[in-house]
Sequence to fold (177 residues):
Amino acid sequence: MDGATLTFLIIGGCGVLVLAIALLGGEFLHFGQADAGGGLWSVEALAGFAGAFGFGGAIANELLGGHTVAATVGAGAVGGLAAVPTAYLTLKLSKAARDMRTDATPTRADLVGSIGVVVTPIPEQGYGEVRVRLGGQPVKLNARADRPVPLGAQVFVVAAPSETSVVVEETTLPSQD
Fold:
């Protein structure tokens, strides 16, 4: 391996490293207009360009022999041809990931109206536990009721005084668990 190939590999490795940092939470690296005006400059795009340029140039340099200036320049041109579409795709994919719509975070208000099952009996003046589904996931919560509720009984959530406790009533509605 000659010096030009090593240089191309170092450029490619640095591009991949910067891309990984940028994609895994490197908001401090953003300096372009990609978020504001949809411009072509973002850290992800530049890092994708550098990575593809470096690795494409290294591959081309080894295939061309890389012992002359012309071969090295040709390898750089091949790296550039690989880098432009890679930078464009990196820009589009990172923007799509950043702008992806997500569901709202469930709150305790979403608990009211849920149907669940008692997993720890609820005494008359104390707390037991119920399992309800919140956002499609089973959640175990502390529960109290006006009267004792036995283990395995179906319950309906009538209030949620906190994020971890609910007030329930025993019911015979069909289970949603």
Residues 69-98 form the longest helix (30 residues). The CA atoms of residues 66 and 72 lie 5 Å apart. The beta strands are 115-120, 128-134, 137-144, 154-159, 165-170.
